[in-house]
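From the methods appendix. Each design record in this collection lists the tokenized structure first, followed by the designed amino acid sequence. Records were kept in a plain field format so they could be parsed without special tools. The example shown here is representative of the layout used throughout.

RECORD:
FOLD TOKENS (331 positions):
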């Protein structure tokens, strides 16, 4: 690419029509994109999308690698039929990973489309500014020198700061006009409040007593019922959650780790994911509740409850839900 640009310049300069008065400017596109707030914002959005894609891809990869490791450790004690069944399971898990990677990073995939959606308008905006400056100041060519450093140039040919200032000025004008439009028009329609989407995943039963009474399912349903009583919250249906679990080869009775919870939350477009575990010892029920933010890839809270009687389960869970929703309100 560098040699093609230099060749093009040499052709222009050797043309008699341009040889004497040709005026060529240059711009550092990399510098522009790193210092123009609109481009920075677009890049942050793209980075967030890539983080989501990678979390899901990593989860899919860990899944088939764990299946491979399990088969390797059990191969000597398994029958040929059992080995074949596990190999089919591994191949399917590997296929799911490959399909997802191709869907995201393959030609015409989600990453390419998202990059085009975010960056193409900014690149067009930069081209428009370059064209306007070229017409006003008589430049016949403006080149990007991000990958082709200029060894020598007369002063006044570096247009980077001028273009950056013009981009910022135009962005300021647009922002100002938008603000004036808002103040000039009184909107009497009711404000639209976006609901917070919450996925409540199954709670793992740690011991036989909790398994026999299926305490985990009771905790999951109780939390769902409690959250539904709060305004501006939306519970993701159990059917959607179970489908997401199955896509990760996770059953409703499996223990769910943080990585899987985050990837499932991203799949379901959930703002928050609630999950955990429980252990019943006589009348005492010990409950662990975790709340994660899939978008930010962070833990919101991790609560430990000791409930002395089963009859108090919903009441104690209600207090815990209130505490986590108060934390969420501050974010």
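DESIGN:
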């Amino acid at each position: 690419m560098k040699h093609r640009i230099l060749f093009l310049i040499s052709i222009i300069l050797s043309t008699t029509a341009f040889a004497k008065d040709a005026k060529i400017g240059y711009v550092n596109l990399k510098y522009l994109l790193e210092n123009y707030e609109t481009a920075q914002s677009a890049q942050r959005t793209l980075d967030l999308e890539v983080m989501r894609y990678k979390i899901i891809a990593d989860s899919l990869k860990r899944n088939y690698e764990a299946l491979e490791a399990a088969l390797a450790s059990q191969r000597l004690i398994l029958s040929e039929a059992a080995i074949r069944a596990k190999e089919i399971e591994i191949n399917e898990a590997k296929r799911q990973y490959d399909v997802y990677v191709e869907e995201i990073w393959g030609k015409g995939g989600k990453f390419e489309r998202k990059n085009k959606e975010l960056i193409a308008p900014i690149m067009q905006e930069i081209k428009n500014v370059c064209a306007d400056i070229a017409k006003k100041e008589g430049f016949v060519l403006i080149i990007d020198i991000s990958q082709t450093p200029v060894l020598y140039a007369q002063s006044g040919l570096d247009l980077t700061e001028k273009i950056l200032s013009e981009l910022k000025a135009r962005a300021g004008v647009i922002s100002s006009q938008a603000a004036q439009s808002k103040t000039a028009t009184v909107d009497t329609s009711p404000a639209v409040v976006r609901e917070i989407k919450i996925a409540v995943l199954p709670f793992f039963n740690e011991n036989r007593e909790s398994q026999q009474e299926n305490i985990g399912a009771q905790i999951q349903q109780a939390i769902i019922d409690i959250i539904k009583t709060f305004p501006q919250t939306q519970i993701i249906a159990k059917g959607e959650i179970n489908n997401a679990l199955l896509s990760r080869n996770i059953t409703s009775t499996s223990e769910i780790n943080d990585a899987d919870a985050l990837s499932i939350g991203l799949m379901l477009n959930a703002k928050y994911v609630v999950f955990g575990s429980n252990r019943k010892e006589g009348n005492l029920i010990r409950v662990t509740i975790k709340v994660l933010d899939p978008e930010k890839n962070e833990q919101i809270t991790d609560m430990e409850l000791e409930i002395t009687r089963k009859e108090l389960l919903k009441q104690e869970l209600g207090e815990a839900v209130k505490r986590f929703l108060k934390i969420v309100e501050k974010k």
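APPENDIX NOTE: DSSP finds twelve helices and seven strands in the chain.
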